[in-house]
Amino acid sequence: MTGTIQKWGNSLALRIPKAVAQQIQIQEGDPVTLKVGVSGLTVKAIPKRIELDDLLLQVTPENLHAASDWGADCGREVLQP
Fold first, then answer.
1. Which of 4, 30, 54, 79 is close enough to 15 for a disulfide, judged by CB 3.0 to 4.6 Å?
2. Residue 32, Cβ neighbours under 10 Å: how many?
């Protein structure tokens, strides 16, 4: 598959086909790394950092699991007097 280089202000932009963007799971605004090597230019998506708050926002009463009984406390979780 091919992309297209286009002028964007004083810079150039790489136009990525939708199918490629979906395949590598990137969307508008996502950061990428650009690496120039002997064989040309490599563009890689920077892995998204998942934040705990974002995960907790997805918890609903429908997908919330009940508490599990793991038995009596033992080890370091036992409070020492």
1. 4
2. 13
